[in-house]
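user: Kindly work through both lines:
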Amino acid sequence: MKNVLSTLCTVLLLTGCEMTTSSVGYYSYGLEPIPGSITYGGQPRTKLTKAPVGSIVPHQFIGPFGRRVYETYVIQPDRSLRLVSRRYRDFLLFDDDDDD
C-alpha cells in the first residue's frame, strides 16, 4: 500500500509539472489568454500595420503566482494577434535575473 501511494503521488506531481512548465507547440489552437497576455480582454486597439503577416511577436510578463510568463504571438492576415505559445519560468523569488 505504501509503495502504491508513493507511486501515485509521484505520477501526480510529474503530471502537474508537465502541464505547467511545458511549452505548447507553435501551431497550437485553443490556447487561452491569461491576465497579462496582450490579447486578454480582446485584441489590442492598435493594429500592427508595419509588421508583415506571419511575424512573431514575443511578450513576457509576471503571471499568476508571481511566475514569469513568456508568450509568442503571430500576426494574422487581418492584423490580429494569435497566441501560439506560452512558457513559464520558476517563481521570481528564486529567479537570478535582474533585468526587470
